Amino acid sequence: MLQPKLHPWSLRAIQICRSSSSRTFPRAAWYATANYAPPPPNASSSLSPSNKSNQGSSPVLRSYKPRTPGVRHLKRPINDHLWKGRPFKPLTLPKKGQAKGGRNVTGHITVRHRGGGHKRRLRIVDFDRWSAGPHIVERIEYDPNRSAHIALLTEQATGKKSYIIAADGMRAGDVIQSYRAGLPKDLLDSMGGVIDPGILASKTAWRGNCLPLHMVPVGTTIFNVGSRGNAGAVFCRSAGTFAVVVSKDSSTAKKQKQQEQQAAGRFGENDSNSSSSTPSRNKDDSYIHVKLQSGEVRKVNRDACCTIGVASNVHYNKRQLGKAGRSRWLNIRPTVRGVAMNKVDHPHGGGRGKSKSNRIPTSPWGTLAKSGYKTRRKHKVNKFLVTPRPRNLGRDKKENEAAAWIADGAAAAGGGRLSLAACTEGRGAVGGCARVPAGIGVQTLFQLAVAVGFGRVIANAVGKITARRQGTHMFSVSSHVSVFVLQQLLEQTFGVPATLPQTGPGSQLPPHVQVLSQFAYEQAPSEPVLHLFSMES
User: Fold this and answer.
1) What is the domain range of residue 181?
2) Strand partners, 396
3) Where is this region: Disordered (predicted)?
4) DSSP 3-state assignment of 327?
5) Is 310 helix (H, G, I), strand (E, B) or coil?
6) DSSP-derived secondary structure letter, 286
7) 305 strand-pairing partners
8) Measured CA angle at 227 (ends 224, 230), to 5 deg
């Protein structure tokens, strides 16, 4: 860390101030917050933990005075709670040899752009957490081999130490437990011998505790998620990542009570009839749907492990290294463009200048690199995939944001009243047309129209109708529908009062909403008609 240079006379002044302040004001105890345990996450905050940080203050980053070019753009998350000393050496291994350079045992490069860096030791992290009983968090440490922080645990009964991935908000002095091996007898006795899912969740679903997935309530934020029942965690282990339990099968919920009682019998007391009363279930009943950080919904074994909370170091993605040398300290070597290489090193290399000629962009081994080229083999089907993650270069993200904006209402986009001005241009009488964000699509407008109660819906396509096209999807109402019906449509769609003046220019509108004037005079149809069409902006 950069330290300011102080002169001897300034040091003397600081010492005088310290001595005078210590006599005037009592010094606060340094151990006052050492054993403070933050409260566990509740159901409302566990659904979307990332939104809470976005709505509040900005991420806490430490910037530096630009004394040198290397620190001008340097930004680091403030993690003053981390351990300043060295790691627990019995739980570490030296990382040296060919592994630091991205080579395998044969010496071939398997991971490019790796090499050099500061010497480090590998931390042995417990991803299984089979050890039951209370564990005390001794300290939170920095791990150079991963983006998240790790916590050093001490088992209260035996004093055995272990490393785990720390949860966001976990501090030294917290007491956490693992219920993967079963429920302890004292916990079962405290509930009167009857396992209630709500009471069980209130006693076990605390931040940092490890539970099997069938014990976690729906909507809970988790990380360190396993894939199989007898294996360790494989999902959501990076900094700030989390998953959400989306749904459980109905038969799984019915048999959850019997499974938990058997687990409690294995751990606390001997039950001779536990093996004979094992319920029979289908193959699909042993899976629970979990939404991962990428947006993918995946089937996970109901006995797989997970940890309550969010992975620590949530502001890791906001950091800025400031200079190329810090990347080299982190064992990251430069990434050279293909057009800057020789012809023997890359298909884009060679020639005079930096042109890749008319060749389609490819990888160094000739595989197509752009235009959405599929590299996964067709016969290799992922049987555990329920909903794939959104792709298409971020265009689906705009669609999701637009749909969320419609769901939240116009007040969330800019507030105020929604006004739609209708004029008398064109052939028509009174009608109206409102623009909505480009990512909403025609199908969403169909659903909105049917929900309001129109008789039949007619889709009039002008150009291409697609939810991914850059443009604006518009919906208009024929003259017979009247302003009153259009007003109801807008109010039920956007959730705010809508005023429809007969004449006059358009008033001030919230962001993402524009007003057009397009009318078509028609004869009174037998039933209300809602015309949907797509039009470029």
Assistant:
1) 36-273+282-335
2) none
3) 40-73, 248-287, 341-368
4) helix
5) coil
6) G
7) 212
8) 100
* Residue 182 DSSP one-character state: -
Closest C-alpha among 290, 293, 320, 316 to residue 302: 290
- How many whole angstroms separate alpha carbon 167 and alpha carbon 223? 8
* Domain shared by 361 and 410, yes or no: no
d(CA 483, CA 504): 15
Q: How many CB atoms lie within 10 A of CB 464?
A: 10
Identify the three-state secondary structure at position 152.
strand
Give the 3-state secondary structure of residue 26.
Answer: coil
Can you give the pTM of this predicted structure?
0.61
Same domain, 412 and 371: no
CA distances to 8, 18, 29 from 24, in Å: 25, 10, 16
E strand spans, 341-414:
385-387
Q: What is the pLDDT of residue 70?
A: 95
Q: What Å distances lie between residue 166 and 61, 103, 120, 240, CA to CA?
A: 20, 30, 20, 11
Helix (H, G, I), strand (E, B) or coil at 215: helix
- Residues found in the chain: 537
Q: What phi and psi values does residue 509 have, to the nearest 5 degrees?
A: -120, 160
CATH of the domain at 367: 4.10.950.10
Question: What are the 10-residue block averages of pLDDT along the chain, 537 residues in total?
Answer: 49 50 38 37 39 46 95 95 96 85 90 92 95 95 96 95 96 94 86 82 92 92 94 95 86 56 52 43 75 94 94 94 96 93 91 80 90 83 90 58 47 34 29 41 50 42 30 40 57 58 35 31 37 35
Structure tokens at 436: 């909505």
Angstrom distance (rounded) from CA 288 to CA 48: 20
User: What does the alpha-carbon distance between residue 534 and residue 459 come to, in Å, rounded to a whole number?
Assistant: 9
